[in-house]
Amino acid sequence: RQTGDTLDLSLGRDKKILVQRVKKQDYGKSNSGTNRLETFLYEITVKNNNKDTIDMELQDQLPVSQESDIIVEAIETSKAEKDDLSGKLKWKMKLAPNETRKYQLSFSVKYPKGKPVMVNKYRTINAPKF
User: Per-residue pLDDT tens for 43-54?
Assistant: First the structure.
């Protein structure tokens, strides 16, 4: 109907673009007074195995606290665009053929000792069984 209208469409995964998210270091728990602090460090690697240059947007997300006594702080986001409300991170890039880029993502979670807090250390996907 309108000539300026656009539609973003995903046609599936491009097998010639490699994206890895690896946990580099887990600082574990440290106690300071009445609080606990957990710090996590991830490395995201993006490699273009295509013969052409590509424009790409990479997205990730930081945990978001729903309670005021639990504080999530971004330490390193490798200059990503950050949405504080949702925790979404975006990196926009142009990758040349056979180019590899690495991004660091680290954050800390501070919470009271007596409060049970589960910080997901692994990504899981729950799917219904039919």
Answer: 999 999 999 999
Residue 4 CA neighbour count, 13 Å, CB half: 0
pLDDT of 1-10, one tens digit each? 566 677 777 6
Q: Give the residue from 103, 62, 117 showing the smallest Cα distance to 84.
A: 62
* Whole-angstrom distance, CA of residue 76 vs CA of residue 26: 15
Q: Which residue has the tokens 């710090």?
A: 39
Q: What is the pTM of this model?
A: 0.77
Question: Closest Cα partner for 75 from 35, 24, 31, 120?
Answer: 24
Whether 61 contacts 77, CB under 8 Å: no
Query: DSSP states of 3-68 as a string?
Result: TT----------TTEEEEEEEEEEEEEEEETTEEEEEEEEEEEEEE-SSS-EEEEEEEE----SST
Mean pLDDT, residues 29-49: 87
User: 68 with 106: CB under 8 angstroms?
Assistant: no
The one-letter code for the residue type at 114 is G
